[in-house]
Amino acid sequence: MRGPPSPAEPAMHSDIIFTDLAKELAAKAAEIAEQYVRPGAAKHDKLQEYNWDAARAVAAAGLFGTFVPVEYGGTGAGILPLAMVTEALARADSGFGVAFAVNALGSFPIILGGTDAQRKRWLPAIAKGEKMVAFCLSEKFAGSDASGLSVTATLEGDEYVIRGEKKWTTNGGVADIYSVFAVTDPTSKSRRISALVVEKGTPGFSVEKVEDKMGIRCVPVVETHFDNVRVPKENLIGERPGMGFKHAMMTLDMARPGVAAQAVGAAQGALDLALVYANRRKQFGAPISSFQMVQKMLADMATKTEAARWLVYSCAGAIDQGGAGAPAVSKKAAMAKCFATDVAMEVATDAVQIFGGYGFMEDYPVAKCFRDAKILQIYEGTNQVQRMVIARHLIKEAGELEHLQQYIPVETQNAYAADGATSSA
Known about the structure:
Layout: H1 20-37, H2 41-47, H3 52-60, H4 79-92, H5 94-113, H6 116-127, E1 133-136, E2 152-156, E3 159-170, E4 177-183, E5 193-199, E6 205-210, E7 221-232, H7 244-280, E8 282-283, E9 286-287, H8 292-322, H9 329-355, H10 365-374, H11 383-397, E10 414-416, E11 422-424
Parallel strand pairs: 1-4
Antiparallel strand pairs: 2-3, 3-7, 4-5, 6-7, 8-9, 10-11
Helix pairs in contact: 1-3, 1-4, 4-5, 4-7, 4-8, 5-6, 5-7, 7-8, 7-9, 7-10, 8-9, 9-10, 9-11
């Protein structure tokens, strides 16, 4: 019988290392958030307009290079700094946190699966903020089931011809570079999908329906259409067909700490507003922050937000130290995304409650916090799917706990025959 695991063996207990660069980038993000993001948040939300002033400030500060390796023009800071920057921006406006982080999501297929030539071709402009990126995976009838895509890419000579439609392309229209997942071999089960880069302006590529969303309204979410779009075969990410599903899953594992960081920022932002309002609002001659029921709400909101923050940091730090393929990254990324986004929704809901009737009014900022929070539980893998991922990993890991069998009694049951004899079963 295998003995108990060593203390280092349980899932990914890694040090969380806050480098000076990470702290510097997060501080820049916090400054930009208060100067360029928060003041225009309500306006951009109402008009469904992209906050270009904030994006230009982010670019000037070099923050788009946070997730790009140094050799391709970025700072190579890593996933933990990316989470910290995203959190700081989302704290001021959850919608702009999405607008920033989606560039990492669209870039990861190139970073993880691209050739050196492809990385040199596209990443430097992304790092400088000169070109924005989008991630085209979901379709009308293929959301959580990423393997069920219908968009095709057929090799004709030296070009791939892409046909079909993508749904919910975040950053669509704003983006210059699109990482598009399409079926290149419909006869294969394991190598069915490939990823290709499509650039804005390519003939046949168009942005169609712009979604009218409940929240995160400052970042466009659109349908992208591919009407016989021709791209050179050099645009096939990795220049090897059939690797798209693997690239997509690795990308989502890398990106989920970013979604979770958006959630932490959103939760902290809602808590900040609730704290200020609870101290200002007076009922029965006293601030409502003096009432024990409100204090309990605030204490729970703060505790869960802090717990989510450190789960996100732990996951992001583990990826930085072990890479996207490190053991249990998928499980911990799912945990971080699931827990943090549930917390964001809960904290935003309680913040509205603390604001009372005013929280239901759109001229109070907490209503936007509530609307923005909901999508976090849905996109980049619903929280139901995340729980399935976590459970599958746990069941596999149960084999490591066989040494505990000896401590769990095994019951037997007697079977009684007609003549009164018994036997043990």
